[in-house]
Amino acid sequence: MPTPTVVQVVVDKPLAQGFDYLWDQQNLGQEPMIGQVVEIPFGRSSLIGVVIKVSGHSDFDINKLKQVKAVAPLPPLDSAALRLMNFASQYYIHGLGETIVPTIPQMWKKPEDWEKIPKKLIAAEKKKEKKDREIKSEGLIAESQLNNEQESALNALRNIAVEKKFRAILLQGQTGSGKTAVFLNWLSSILQDEKAQVLILVPEINLTPQLERRVRAYFPNKNMAVLHSAIPENQRGVAWYEAMTGKAQIILGTRLAALTPMPNLKAIVVDEEHDPSYKQQDGIRYSARDLAIWRAHDVKAPILLSSATPSLETWMAAKAGRYEYIRLDQRAQGASLPNVHLINTRDPQNQFSPGDVGRPEGKSPISKHLFHAISKNLENKKQSLVLINRRGYAPVLSCNACTWMSKCQQCSSYMVMHKAGALSRKSVLSCHHCGLVKPIPEHCPDCGNADLRALGQGTQKIEDSIEELWPKARVLRIDTDSSKKSKGAEELFQEIHAGNVDLVVGTQMIAKGHDYQNIGLVAVLDADSRLFSQDFRAPERLFAQLVQVAGRAGRSGTEGQAGGDIFIETQYPEAAVFQYLLRHDVDGFLSYTANERDEAKLPPFSYQGLVHAEGKSLEKAIQYLGALKGRLRSKNLIGHGLKVYDPVPKAVMRVAGTERAQLVIESGNRKQLQEILELIDQDLRSHSQGRISKGENIRWLIERDPISI
Ligand code: ADP
Ligand code: ZN
Ligand code: ZN
Q1: How big, in percent rounded to 5, are the helix, strand and coil portions of the chain?
Q2: How many CB atoms lie within 10 A of CB 378?
Q3: Ligand 1 atom at minimum distance from 515 CA
Q4: Which CATH number fits domain 339-392+458-599: 3.40.50.300, 2.30.110.70, 3.30.750.24, 3.40.1190.20?
Q5: Nearest CA residue ID for atom 21, ligand 1
Q6: What is the 395 CA–ligand 3 centroid distance (Å)?
Q7: Is beta strand 19-23 parallel, antiparallel or unpaired with respect to 383-387?
Q8: Beta carbons within 8 Å of 142's beta carbon, 6+ residues apart
Q9: Which of the four pLDDT bands, split at 50, 70 and 90, describes residue 562?
Q10: How many H-runs (helices) and E-runs (strands) does the chain carry?
């Protein structure tokens, strides 16, 4: 009897190992290959898995092994993709199967449809071609149009990024300095190789349409695949298929695109590389930027990290010469950077006083100073952007007679008031953590008082105030609530581009990357709320966001023309974040932040891991982590450069009835951290079912390089 073929298959379960199955070549009609997507019987049902090993041997009784049921009509995942998955799985302490399988689009995980797929593909590709032809192309700045600075940047890039060599390059340049124009011209030389594939990562879905049109303008004849979570299932399935078969040369997408197989990958661009959206915050908590760097290294390709406000990690690597460093210091269209104005809201002179012209009824969230500036900007026929990082009407509803506040019954947070028409027909309270929605009570649930007050402000309340202050202005609100309605975010942005609005109120959605041409003024209303956060990265984020949003102002202009204004309302104008912003001193701010982190031995001067624990009781979750710490101590693992903090409740302690705690682990040595996290994984697994501890029923998860603590 010939030796049977055994394949090892991994599935999407929190398991460390794969499972052996028999491969019946006659029945399956093909040879087994590593990377194949297969259907296997599993327990009483069946699952999708990926073949990671082929052999003639099993440690288990061959006669008891089950057979692979079917093979997906796909080429196997290529070896580079599998190396990437293996690395991600090891580095992020996550099972290989639960790392790979979720990256395969749903369309390819339905065995019942596999027979129909070839037909479906033909139809889908036709549809895609038609759609591609419909994409407008715009924003082409050909190589001959680049300014001197851009041209030298492009030349530097071409010199550094030689074929078949890994290089990480930081392209740091002011907002509007023409970074995109530089990297698209660079990619164009790489794409002269017919087969070459390039990956362009963007932090947010909302930024893809604009870049898609620009890429289209540069590469009208290339096949582009766009990948992000809002793309319909089949469309995404086709885009992924075209990437993994090498049919698409340009892959443009959000973080999930970083894990897409691309057999001929020749270059990667990570746009806005500092953006926290590159970090996945559930499942395998990877950083798409970091994986992209590893991937470029693995396939010996250059990777360009682009930003106006690089992350401290990247900036330090460039400063130290580990990354190449290219800079653009002028704005491409000639205008100078916006003037920064700090409005001290504690100063009575900046506020309305009784009798002032134009004074709104009640307390105004917009200071008098800002009121005059916006009025002037309106007179000049320029648009204004007003940023407030909170959607809804007011962050909390409270009773005027007793201490009642709109606490969520399931979470340790307040329910946000949304005005009528925003989330539902009537005004409601909504929890932004668990999604619970409730009608607004007519009377205080505790004392029956009818006088309930909306405390603080969100986008909707500011929209109301603005309409009151400038009754004739055309006002548009952009936040995740408004963009979910009939018009998508893209259409709302088009309204701004088309000049159909005078004043835009929005959350950080409006701050990033958009190339608006007629914004004269940007106002930031709630910067202080992020000044004193327990998260040590909060100032870095705030700074990046302020630079980004300031960068929306005055992008077009003639040589030397003022680049618009940004007004920041704050009670603490002396804070470092604002002072560096005032001088447009990105490097100064980063260097200041680097010193602070160095002194406190915080990342990037150390490496961190996090153990999350969730359960029905906070006490038990804390105890669970405390016991873990105790075991580490008794094995003499703490010290020697390894620091384990005490377990603490998370910033939002309870979400949807689940209590949440965390344990921070820190080391100055990457390898030491890796080893201890692997040890913790084994330790916790040894009395768990998957990632749920037996007995206490605590759900745990290990996170590497957390970005919010
Ligand atoms: P960044 O990526 O640095 O924000 P972009 O590449 O988006 O900058 O360029 C900002 C704006 O300047 C865009 O409207 C772009 O079309 C324009 N632009 C870029 N380079 C040039 C150039 N050499 N000449 C004229 N306009 C340019
Ligand atoms: Zn009350
Ligand atoms: Zn809630």
Answers
A1: 35, 25, 40
A2: 18
A3: 14
A4: 3.40.50.300
A5: 332
A6: 13
A7: unpaired
A8: 185
A9: low
A10: 19, 30
**Distance from Cα 447 to the centre of ligand 2, integer Å:** 4
Q: Look over the chain and give the mean of its residue pLDDT values, rounded to a whole number.
A: 92
b/e for 327-360, b at 16 or more Cβ within 10 A? bbebbbbebbbbbbbbbbbeeeeebbeeeeeeeb
Highest mean pLDDT among 133-147, 535-549, 613-627: 613-627
- Residue 149 sits at φ, ψ, to 5 deg, of -65, -45
pLDDT, tens digit, for every residue of 478-516? 988 887 765 678 888 888 989 999 999 999 888 876 778
Q: Rounded to an integer, what distance in angstroms lies between the CA atom of residue 573 and that of residue 643?
A: 36
Q: Which residue in the block uniquely carries the two structure tokens 């009025």?
A: 375
**Rounded distance between C-alpha atoms, residue 367 and residue 359, angstroms:** 10
pTM over 0.85: yes
Count the residues in the chain.
709
Which numbered ligand comes closest to the C-alpha of 179? 1
What is the whole-number distance in angstroms between the Cα of residue 576 and the centre of ligand 2? 41
Task: Provide long-range contacts, Cβ within 8 A and 24+ apart, for 421-429.
Answer: 422/392, 422/393, 422/460, 422/481, 422/482, 423/481, 427/393, 429/397
CATH architecture of the domain 6-78+87-96 equals: 3-Layer(aba) Sandwich (3.40)
Residues having CB closer than 6 A to ligand 1 are 139, 141, 145-147, 150, 173, 175-181, 332-333, 515, 555
- Please report the pLDDT score of residue 1 as a whole number: 54
Whose Cα sits closest to atom 10 in ligand 1?
176
Instruction: Give the angle subtended at the CA of 667 by the CAs of 664 and 670, to the nearest 5°.
Output: 115
The Å distance, Cα 219 to ligand 1 centre, comes to 17
* In CATH, 607-704 is 3.30.200.20: no
Indicate which residue's Cα is closest to atom 4 of ligand 1: 176
CA distance 146 to 660: 52
> How far are the Cα atoms of 373, 377, 461, 471, 619 from residue 503, in angstroms, in the given order?
13, 10, 14, 11, 49
The strand order across the sheet containing 428-430 reads: 416-418, 428-430, 437-439
Planar angle of CA 661, 663, 669, nearest 5 degrees:
155
Q: Which residues contact 353 (CB under 8 A, 6 or more apart)?
A: 359, 368
- Ligand closest to 329 (CA) is 1
Residue to mutate (ligand 1; options 137, 138, 140, 141; most atoms within 8 A of CB): 141
Q: Across residues 606-613, what is the average pLDDT? A: 97
Alpha helices in 367-410 (DSSP H): 368-379
Listed by start position, the domains of the chain span 6-78+87-96, 115-328, 339-392+458-599, 394-456, 607-704
Question: What span, in angstroms and rounded, lies between the C-alpha atoms of 459 and 393?
Answer: 6
The total of other beta-carbon atoms located within 10 Å of residue 554's CB is 29
- 205 alpha carbon to ligand 3 midpoint, in Å? 26
543 C-alpha to ligand 1 centroid (Å): 22
DSSP secondary structure of 280-346? --SSS--BHHHHHHHHHHHHT-EEEEEESS--HHHHHHHHTTSSEEEEE-S-TTS--PPEEEEEETT
Tell me, yes or no, if the two domains 115-328 and 607-704 fold the same way: no
Establish whether the linkage from the previous residue to 604 is cis, with ω within 30° of 0: yes
Of all residues in the chain, what percent carry a pLDDT higher than 90? 74
Phi and psi torsions of 48, nearest 5°: -95, 135
DSSP codes of every residue in 19-40 = EEEEE-HHHHSS---TT-EEEE
Distance (Å, rounded) from C-alpha 591 to C-alpha 571? 24
Residue position matching structure tokens 């005005």: 419
CATH superfamily of 115-328: P-loop containing nucleotide triphosphate hydrolases (3.40.50.300)
Q: Looking at this protein, which amino acid is placed at residue 198?
A: V
